[in-house]
Amino acid sequence: MELNEFLATALKDAGYGGVEVQKTPVGARITVYVTRPGLVIGRKGIGIKDLMTKIEQKFGLQNPQISVLEVTNPELNPHIMCNRIAQLIERGTAFRRAAMWSLNTIMNAGALGVEVVISGKLRTERAHFEKHTVGVVPKSGDIAGQIVTTGVSHVLTKMGLMGIQLRIASRAALPQEFELKNGAAGVQAAAASPPAATGEGSGSAAEIVAEQPEGGKQDGQA
Hey, which of 7, 45, 153, 206 has its CA 20 to 30 A from 38? Predict the structure, then answer.
């Protein structure tokens, strides 16, 4: 969590989009996602070496190996879009207009749903929050952990500190869908038709009753 916050501040201009850390026997393997990898790597790799030194000293990671990957679809990355909202508000754009812009941009990129929550001193001295949602954004269950990603950002305005939380439900991460062919008609036909008779002793109820003696008496009884 601390590494994520550090990189979000250090790589803000590079379009920071998240980090993955894997611990290996030879050291920590760090994968950083940005929209502009050239700003992170720097000329002749000076930028990436400086970043590696800072991470090693600040977090005590031994021999960190950093890989920088470009985000292919930044409109569906919550960290990137959250920072873009913060930048718009810093430049003087109304927070509600910035939120509406992000909703339209993310949904046009193919998201299943998006939710933006902006909190702080928005209009008055009293802090409150506004939430805007478009599409479907699961809040609980296994499906929420599979398709929903969250980004958080903060921006300092004249009114005070403002917090931004963005949750994106990705359509690409949905589990595989199944469709029944002739489902309703097939189920109704199977329920209406009786099971096929197999083996000896099968017959209708009338035939079984006709085979029994009248009154249920056995032969030889008076």
Answer: 153
